[in-house]
């Protein structure tokens, strides 16, 4: 089963999860900058090599590379406030200027279409041209799921959570008349089918969708005992489950989010309290800066927990602040710095692409005037192997930088998938992400 980029149609089958996400993020950045996406005919192997190289060495295009170099030179010449130093707003693409044409027609994976007596629905399927369906469903606002949506959309109603609807309208200019908001846990009748949106424990506004109490589509989710109990509150037996199999691999076993968050918080408090300046220098109160990597949305829980522990507000670049305001998350709203200089905060929520040695070193030239040391958290599950040892997290000495890669994932681990599927009777499990271990699903099905 080939996996194509939802934005440029490039074959990304052989790329791992992080590389697929990075590829889609670069495509989205190019689209927002008004650049045309050009796809070359390549094998999946050559695509893999090209993207791996791009992840390490170069951005999407030479033009973007030159633009970044100009920005870097400007940063070196001027001492800017922190907002100006990090926040470089991109020109927002006006999707409504595009001609009202359907997305390019291409073959749609079978698991994107759900059929019921008298009804047919499409889930996370917006880049396949107009479909002969009664309604569309969007599980959450990540580019590999909403790809194909734009201001020219007119092919049918889209059911999603209120937070997702606000993001789709704001970022993609989709006409609100096509966006049907469904609150989490509230019943909704769509063309005679009873539908429930339930929390997916993935990113803000994300949902798993239960149809007629018999068919479950998980979108992207982080399975947990709470989610299992929620589903079992509606039904004890599913005819079908369309399962997020991102980490369907016995090697992909990593800690719970709560465990990782608590260990990261403890590490920050430890660094803040024990990292002292040299005996020969004038004493200076420690002031730790914590950067937490994120995507357009996602990973906010880690930043929130650290901010509460350090009694700090959270700074984020203005474009991201506007997006986070749309989530209407009370915990997050109370902590976000709405205005003022970012150097007043000890927690910064930034793009994942900012957290590499080169960029952090460049930022630190400015930030070291305001902080004694820096911890950067790269939260992802895809690099994790073996046992997570919090004691191995770097403890930067004063004036230095520590980069912490932690197994904080918003997808289910193998063990969590197994526990979820074994906790409820499922007649047929259908994978929504390619995997080399699909035979495992048959063992989890109820015979």
Automatic annotation (TrEMBL):
Pfam family membership, one: DRMBL
Localisation: Nucleus
CDD domains: SNM1A-1C-like_MBL-fold (cd16273)
A Gene Ontology biological process term: double-strand break repair via nonhomologous end joining
Superkingdom, taxonomy of origin: Eukaryota
Predominant location: nucleus
One annotated Gene Ontology cellular component of this protein: nucleus
Keyword tags: DNA damage, DNA repair, Nucleus
Gene Ontology molecular function, alphabetical: 5'-3' DNA exonuclease activity; damaged DNA binding
UniProt cross-references to SMART domains, sorted A to Z: Lactamase_B
Residue ranges constituting the Metallo-beta-lactamase domain according to the UniProt record: 43-257
Family to which this protein belongs: Belongs to the DNA repair metallo-beta-lactamase (DRMBL) family.
Name recorded for this polypeptide: DNA cross-link repair protein pso2/snm1
């Amino acid at each position: 089963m080939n996996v194509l980029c939802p934005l440029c149609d490039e074959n990304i089958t052989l790329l791992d999860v992080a590389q697929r996400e990075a590829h889609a993020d670069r495509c989205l950045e190019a689209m927002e900058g008004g650049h045309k996406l050009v796809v070359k005919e390549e094998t999946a192997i050559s695509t893999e090599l090209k993207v791996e190289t791009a992840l390490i060495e170069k951005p999407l295009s030479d033009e973007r590379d030159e633009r970044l170099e100009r920005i870097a030179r400007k940063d070196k010449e001027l001492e800017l406030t922190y907002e100006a130093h990090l926040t470089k707003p991109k020109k927002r693409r006006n999707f409504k200027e595009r001609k009202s044409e359907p997305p390019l027609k291409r073959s749609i994976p079978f698991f994107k279409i759900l059929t019921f007596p008298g009804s047919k629905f499409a889930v996370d399927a917006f880049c396949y041209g107009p479909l002969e369906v009664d309604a569309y469903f969007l599980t959450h606002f990540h580019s590999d799921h909403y790809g194909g949506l734009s201001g020219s959309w007119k092919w049918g109603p889209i059911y999603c959570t209120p937070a997702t609807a606000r993001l789709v309208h704001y970022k993609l200019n989709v006409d609100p008349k096509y966006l049907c908001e469904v609150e989490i846990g509230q019943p909704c009748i769509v063309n005679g089918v009873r539908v429930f949106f339930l929390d997916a424990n993935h990113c803000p506004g994300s949902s798993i969708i239960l149809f007629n109490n018999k068919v479950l589509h998980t979108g992207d989710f982080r399975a947990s005992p709470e989610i299992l109990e929620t589903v079992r509150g509606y039904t004890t037996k599913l005819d079908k489950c369309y399962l997020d199999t991102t980490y369907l691999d016995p090697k992909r076993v990593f800690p719970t989010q709560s465990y990782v968050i608590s260990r990261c918080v403890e590490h920050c408090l430890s660094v803040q309290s024990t990292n002292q300046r040299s005996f020969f220098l004038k004493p200076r109160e420690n002031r730790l800066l914590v950067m937490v990597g994120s995507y357009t949305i996602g990973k906010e829980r880690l930043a929130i927990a650290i901010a509460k522990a350090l009694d700090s507000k959270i700074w984020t670049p203005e474009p991201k602040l506007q997006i986070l305001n749309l989530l209407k998350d009370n915990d997050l709203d109370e902590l976000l710095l709405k205005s003022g200089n970012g150097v007043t905060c000890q927690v910064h929520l930034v793009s994942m692409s900012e957290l590499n040695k080169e960029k952090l070193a460049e930022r630190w030239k400015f930030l070291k005037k305001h902080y004694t040391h820096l911890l950067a958290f790269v939260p992802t599950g895809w690099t994790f192997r073996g046992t997570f040892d919090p004691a191995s997290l770097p403890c930067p000495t004063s004036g230095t930088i520590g980069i912490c890669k932690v197994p904080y994932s918003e997808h289910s681990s193998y063990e969590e998938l197994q526990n979820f599927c074994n906790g409820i009777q499922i007649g047929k499990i259908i994978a929504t992400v390619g995997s080399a271990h699909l035979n495992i699903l048959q063992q989890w099905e109820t015979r």
